[in-house]
């Protein structure tokens, strides 16, 4: 027989007041971060990465594979095959790197008040609900429930956002900010359909160049490490944050090791420069 569970007392005392609870007395859900629209970034990454991998396959078929016995095409020398093989490996790795650019991109971060029964003494009675985008279109976002101590940023988010364009919402509008996002009304379309179409045409080329650069260097992206789940990307450019990211920064710890190391990115940064640097 299963062990008998001791029922929780009905008059369980609430946890002591903390700075989050005193600022958000009427809210059990507080939106801290909402990502920008990544449609162009996702499409560009998938298209360019797929083209590079398809080109690698075609090149390998043409250079590395020996022609049939009855073919008039001469055999490729081994030295050329060796050079071609190295080229295929490098370009395939590059294409894979671009394909992985949209992977593990955070969609939103929400602070969730924990019930009194789940409160651990000495800790703020709030957890983070992290929504992660999926690459496949129309796929439901993955949701992670993360204790505050298991969430780490690789930088001081308010300080790192000083040279980045984003939308900040004051604490007094936190309830509206949270409700508007989950009702899908945070990004309101402005102007007529014709004016929006004209703006999109004007911004096509600047948008493409910006997204292509971001595929290589991950410009204006912070990195998050979640214990047991790995590293994630937090896009600061054009995002929405509560109080310029100060609330999120105060809740979590900053750890430079939260950023996944990349020798390939380090080489590109030396050549092209790093827009994330202050």
Percent helix, as a range, is: 25-40%
Low-confidence stretches: 8-15
Count of helical stretches = 9
Average pLDDT metric = 77
Strand content range: 15-25%
Q: Order of SSEs, N→C? A: HEHHEEEEHEHHHEEEHEH
Largest sheet entry = 6 strands, mixed
- First-last Cα distance: 62 Å
Structural class: alpha+beta
Shape: elongated
As laid out across the biggest beta sheet, the strand order is 4-3-2-1-9-6
Gyration radius, rounded: 24 Å
Give a brief rundown of this model.
The protein has 278 residues and is α+β, with helices and mostly antiparallel strands.
Written account of the structure:
The protein has 278 residues and is of the alpha+beta class. It folds into two domains: 22-36 and 104-187 and 203-272, no CATH class; 43-99. The protein contains nine helices and ten strands. The chain has a six-stranded mixed β-sheet with strand order 4-3-2-1-9-6. The longest helix is centred in the first third of the chain and has 26 residues, at 39-64. The radius of gyration is 24 Å and the shape is elongated.
Secondary-structure blueprint of this entry?
Blueprint: H1 19-23, E1 29-34, H2 39-64, H3 78-99, E2 106-113, E3 126-132, E4 142-147, E5 151-153, H4 157-160, E6 167-169, H5 174-182, H6 193-202, H7 204-217, E7 221-226, E8 230-235, E9 240-242, H8 246-251, E10 253-254, H9 263-272
Key terms:
elongated, 9 helices, alpha+beta, 4-stranded mixed β-sheet, 2 domains, 6-stranded mixed β-sheet, 278 residues
